[in-house]
Amino acid sequence: MSEVRLRIRHKGGQDQLTVSPTTMLATLATQLAEKSGVPQQRLRLRIGFPPKPFMGAADMPVGEALTSGETLIVEESDEPSIPVVAAASEPLTTSALATSVMPTRPPAPTEAPPVNSSGVGVRRVVDADNSCLFTSMAYVMLGRDRARGADLREVVAREILADPVMYNEVVLNMEPNAYAAWIKGSEHWGGAIELAVLSDHFSTVIAAWDVQTMRTDRYGQDKGYNQCIHLIYDGLHYDALALSMLEESPPECEEFDITVFSPFDTYMDGQVKAVIAKLNTTRQFTDTSKFSLRCLVCQKGLVGEADAVEHAKATGHQNFAEYR
User: What is the pTM of this model?
Assistant: First the structure.
């Protein structure tokens, strides 16, 4: 689907806005608030002719909710059209946060996928652009769509704000509102917190395989989930793991990849272990205790992950690159 073009009418005049059809309504609400001057938590929308009230879930894609060419009338009301969290200048209480953001989760599968007995485990590489975890998750959970990683940042932010008791300041190492805003930034990496959140969102066991240690961490393993996906972690970067059903096909052919499995699929586990063992043998990983980094903000040289973490805490700088 092509981009969605919208006409905006508000108290300050008229504007135009073009967004991707995969953009979530929560993101659209932020943009509308900026253009109209109406606080996001008071944003009321009307569409059509004659104008009718519009209501939409925060995590609904724009392409499913609105038609390109639509006119949106922006008004101010105590009943927002898109449930969102108030701006940081108007902090909400913990109870208000929990009720103001209600992420819509996909239905939890009632049955596990069939166990496989053929096919070849393959690594599906994604861009090293600070969003590799989210892009890999989009590949395995959202129909092999590498373009929807940014949507999953939004999902993580909303899930965290919906449960500030589980995802509190101690767990996140920062206040939940601040963390939710931080993880939506495309320059910030995802890690264990994001894998735990996405495991619950998709009701899926996420098996993250470490190339260096050949260890696997299984998020959601004890929650009775009926499906499982696999990711590779090389110390700095995540990639997706899939089962290619066409053993004679070119390695770049992804059309027949299987990406979601039964948690008890021992055949796929064996295929994954073979992929990880080969990567380990050829040392396709980064030893994060010894690798050299440069801060791309101030150009300071750093050694190891611990050094980078301390530098980030001291300066607020978050953009690093490995160099040899």
Answer: 0.62
Q: Is 188 a catalytic residue?
A: no
Contact status, residue 183 vs residue 157, Cβ threshold 8 Å: yes
Split into its structural domains, the chain has a count of 3
Q: Which of 10, 59, 132, 239 is catalytic?
A: 132
Q: Is 10 a catalytic residue?
A: no
Considering the domain architecture, whether residues 32 and 61 belong to the same structural domain is answered as yes
Q: List the catalytic residue out of 10, 230, 237, 311.
A: 237
Spatial separation of the C-alpha atoms in residues 134 and 240, rounded to whole Å: 10
Determine which one of 127, 129, 145, 287 is catalytic. Answer: 129
pLDDT digits (tens, 9 = 90+) for 27-42: 888 888 888 888 888 8
126 and 271 assigned to the same domain: yes
Q: Catalytic annotation on 132?
A: yes
CA distance 322 to 293: 4
Annotated catalytic residue 317? yes
Residues spanned by the domain of 300:
292-322
- Of the candidates 188, 210, 307, 317, the residue annotated as catalytic is 317
In terms of domains, do 276 and 296 share one?
A: no
- The C-alpha atoms of residue 305 and residue 5 are separated, in whole angstroms, by 43
